[in-house]
Write a structure and sequence with these properties.
Helices cover 8% and strands 39% of the residues. Strands 19, 20, 21, 22, 23, 24, 25 and 26 form an eight-stranded mixed sheet that branches. Strands 6-5-2-3-4-8-7 form a seven-stranded antiparallel sheet, with no helix packed on it. The longest helix has 16 residues. Strand 11 and strand 12 form a beta hairpin. The chain folds into two domains: 120 residues, no CATH class; 245 residues, Thrombin, subunit H, CATH 2.40.10. By secondary structure, it is mostly beta strands.
């Protein structure tokens, strides 16, 4: 065990000195083979919810001064489906012109982003592409893992401009935060957070995973173990014009809450599919376990983009643990932000800690010691 601790001392010294890293805003590559219903809308995105209908954000059709909706579709590019790369277009790509725009009647660009939802009718049905299922459940638990996809900006430059749109489809893991927290965060920004909105953030205090310019109108969804997805939100707005337009950990990103518009969607698209709920399930490899002696087995711990398998051994009755060893982990999800992460201050964040058959979210704080590296219990709550 001493040999492991020696090596870990070097690793942890590096962790303690690490600075916040700006991650790629939109995450890792995704594919239309998995998400066939995603469509590109000439600078925005949308979701195919019926063969002839796309769900998107109303603000994608604002006029140049953001004072009214521009209903003209004549000069807009066709909606594009099944495109993994919008530069090197494959033969499977489907392009269909949009012929009718129906923004929500209560959307008003002069009043911000409330009711930021619209329906787009296609010229012809797209019958061979699966449609998305929408969420009807009115509430979603805080800290629910979700996935956002799009091709928008992947960086923010020093002038607070969103840059480097992606030519390939990307996805990012995000987590729901309460509207109360979201409202407080946006008080100084002059943005009103309403019950029609859903707020999401990155996994930890320095996680800059986010959606950004060019992703608007696209979906955020709950994804279960079997890859079944239910769309819960529409990418709407986020960030600060004063500090950082995207990827600002202090400001959650904001999405239109789809369940609030079920009756309006059904009024125009009766065939749209809704699901009462979808349980966001953590991959089995993410299930951190406490044994009867309260020792912790962490199969997928993330630090600086690398994933490790390691353990914490309880060393005293004051709930202090010692980190005992590490190995490279190979059986973890491709983007395992919802497992265990290490903050820059060495705090350990558990999203799926199992004890006596129940799941918890827990935090252990780093506690420097004369010998070794210790972590002390900080807090926990039901997952």
């Amino acid at each position: 065990m001493k040999r492991f601790l020696c090596c870990l001392g070097v690793l942890l010294t590096g962790i303690a000195q690490a600075q916040p890293v700006a991650r790629i805003i939109n995450g890792v590559p995704a594919s239309t083979a998995t998400y066939p219903w995603i469509g590109d809308l000439d600078g925005c995105a949308g979701t195919l919810i019926a063969p002839q209908w796309v769900l998107t954000a109303a603000h994608c059709f604002n006029n140049a001064t953001d004072t009214a909706v521009n209903f003209s579709l004549e000069h807009r590019l066709p909606v594009q489906f099944l495109s993994d790369n919008i530069i090197r277009v494959s033969d499977q790509v489907v392009e269909v012109k949009a012929v009718e725009l129906i923004p929500h009647p209560d959307y008003n660009p002069r009043r911000g982003f409330n009711n930021d939802i619209a329906l787009l009718k296609l010229a012809t049905p797209v019958n061979h592409i699966p449609v998305a299922t929408l969420m009807s459940a009115p509430s979603i638990a805080v800290n629910t893992p979700m996935v956002a996809i799009g091709r928008g900006a992947t960086e923010v430059n020093d002038d607070n401009q969103a840059v480097k749109s992606s030519e390939i489809l990307l996805k990012a893991d995000l987590f729901t935060v309460s509207n109360a927290v979201c409202k407080q965060a946006y008080l100084s920004e002059g943005e009103t957070i309403t019950d029609n909105m859903l707020c999401l953030s990155g996994f930890s205090s320095d996680d800059r995973s986010d959606t950004c310019s060019g992703d608007s109108g696209g979906p955020v969804f709950i994804e279960a173990d079997n890859q079944a997805t239910v769309q819960a939100g529409i990418i709407s707005f986020g960030g600060s014009t004063k500090t950082r337009i995207c990827s600002n950990p202090d400001l959650p990103s904001v999405y239109t809450r789809v369940s609030r518009y079920q009756s309006w969607i059904k009024q125009h698209v009766p065939e749209a599919k809704f699901a009462q709920s979808a349980s966001a399930k953590f991959p089995a490899s993410c299930k951190t376990q406490l044994d009867p002696n309260l020792n912790v087995a962490m199969p997928c711990l993330i630090f600086e983009g690398q994933v490790y398998s390691t353990h914490l051994w309880l060393v005293d009755t004051n709930l202090t643990w010692l980190w005992s060893g590490q190995l490279a982990a190979s059986a973890c999800p491709a983007n395992p932000h919802y497992c265990v992460s290490v903050d820059n201050d060495l705090t350990l964040n558990f999203r799926n800690l199992t004890l006596d058959g129940s799941q918890y979210k827990a935090t252990l704080s780093y506690s420097p010691a004369v010998e070794g590296h210790h972590w002390r219990y900080s807090n926990h709550e039901p997952e």
